């Protein structure tokens, strides 16, 4: 080790510049690990945090999060009447972009039955769950709302009664929990101008020649109302001892709906909406690691070639091959370890300022370091091979 350190001291500036450069590359590799893990975590966070025994959705649909599913709200009464079902709760999840506190923000509204609790936030940072049927909200801390803050959404003003950091939408957007009727109004209630235009279109259709008189059309038009009692899914909690597979099959057979357990929802999401982006991130992450190892190999080889005459001198004075091998191998390990350490320090002190979740895990850090170290050792073999082939006569100026 003394020989390697002595050589590094003689070229300290170049070694430090190389270490910083490769360290930045390692920071990108580690950040890609975190981006990949964060993408998968956020993609499944809402399913994992909701976690009912069964998800009941529109027939032939993959679920309320993987794809859109629309059901009449009253269906949850039919589901609740099925054998083995303890609770059945309507559930809405819908991404929106609205103005809150004077700023346009993108977030996902989650509407649930606040009295059964299914679908609501389970862990709160501050405050309490929603206990009233209207005008209360639990906000994700990423929305920037404070406890007891009032904000305008749609036609009404809501009060933040709780804060959470549990779960995000699959796009990484924060969640805003509302009671079911509040969420239905915010999501489904159209603009007043749209209501007037729709009523006018219906009226003109009714008074078409040969259909209804003006009096009859106005009579039927008065019955027109906006349908807001729609939901995306019914969340089910089973009775103790009930078999999820049997209850799910009963709901499919008698109510003609699709039913999934939470693990099945995770599988559908992983193999559907998340599949291609996840594979692309994984491929990019692998390529980055390969590029990093190749650059280390090139640096080690270049450093070896720069001191090839010094190696020839060592061989001329009788230094054994193991000393030369040790010199190159130790420098390779030092370069890889120091570079990785710099990259690790950079990303672990900056990951929290990234716009989306960067989830760093000790296992990923360890595996990346192990692969980089193995790659560095293998890369140093090229330099060792070149050094061992160097004739001692090169020290005397012969080629």
Task: Write a structural description.
- There is one protein chain.
- With 399 residues, the chain is α+β, with helices and mostly antiparallel strands.
- The protein has 3 domains: 3-44 and 275-395, no CATH class; 59-189 and 228-256, no CATH class; 190-227.
- Helix content is 51%, strand content 17%.
- The protein has helices spanning 2-10, 12-50, 75-80, 180-188, 192-206, 214-221, 244-255, 262-271, 275-306, 308-316, 321-348, 362-388, and strands at 54-57, 71-72, 85-100, 103-112, 126-127, 136-140, 150-153, 156-164, 175-179, 230-231, 233-238, 258-261.
- Strands 1, 3, 4, 5, 6, 7, 8, 9, 11 and 12 form a 10-stranded mixed β-sheet that branches. Strands 2-10 form a two-stranded antiparallel ribbon.
- A hairpin with a 2-residue loop joins strand 3 and strand 4.
- The longest helix has 39 residues, at 12-50.
- The two termini are 30 Å apart.
- 33% of the residues are buried.
- Residues 284-392 form the ABC3 transporter permease C-terminal domain.
């Amino acid at each position: 080790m003394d020989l390697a350190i002595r050589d590094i001291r003689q070229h300290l500036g170049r070694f430090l510049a190389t270490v910083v450069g490769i360290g930045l590359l390692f920071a990108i590799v580690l950040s890609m690990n975190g981006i990949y893990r964060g993408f998968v975590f956020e993609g499944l966070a809402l399913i994992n945090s909701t976690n009912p025994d069964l998800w009941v959705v529109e027939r032939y649909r993959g679920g309320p999060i993987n794809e859109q599913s629309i059901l009449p709200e009253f269906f949850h009464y039919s589901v609740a009447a099925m054998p083995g079902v303890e609770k059945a709760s309507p559930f809405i999840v819908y991404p929106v972009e609205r103005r809150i506190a004077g700023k346009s923000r993108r977030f996902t509204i989650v509407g649930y039955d606040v009295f059964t609790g299914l679908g609501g936030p389970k862990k709160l940072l501050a405050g309490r769950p929603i206990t009233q049927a209207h005008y209360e909200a639990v906000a994700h801390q990423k929305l920037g709302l404070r406890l007891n803050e009032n904000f305008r959404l749609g036609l009404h003003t809501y009060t933040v009664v709780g804060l959470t950091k549990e779960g995000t939408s699959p796009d990484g957007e924060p969640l805003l929990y509302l009671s079911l009727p509040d969420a239905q109004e915010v999501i489904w209630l159209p603009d007043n101008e749209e209501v007037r235009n729709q009523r006018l279109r219906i009226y003109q259709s009714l008074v078409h020649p040969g259909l209804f008189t003006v009096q009859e059309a106005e009579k039927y038009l008065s019955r027109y109302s906006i349908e807001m009692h729609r939901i995306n899914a019914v969340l089910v909690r089973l009775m103790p001892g009930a078999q999820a597979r049997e209850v799910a099959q009963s709901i499919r057979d008698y109510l003609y709906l699709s039913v999934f357990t939470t693990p099945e929802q995770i599988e559908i999401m992983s193999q559907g909406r998340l599949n291609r982006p996840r594979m692309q991130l994984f491929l990019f992450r692998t390529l980055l690691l390969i590029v990093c190892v190749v650059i280390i190999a090139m640096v080690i080889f270049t450093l070896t070639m720069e001191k090839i005459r010094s190696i020839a001198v060592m061989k001329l004075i009788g230094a054994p091959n193991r000393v030369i091998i040790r010199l190159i191998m130790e420098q390779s390990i030092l370069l890889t370890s120091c570079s990785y350490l710099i990259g690790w320090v950079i990303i672990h002190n900056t990951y929290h300022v990234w716009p989306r979740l960067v989830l760093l895990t000790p296992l990923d850090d360890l595996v990346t370091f192990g692969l980089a170290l193995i790659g560095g050792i293998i890369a140093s073999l090229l330099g060792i091979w070149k050094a061992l082939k160097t004739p001692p006569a090169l020290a005397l100026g012969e080629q």
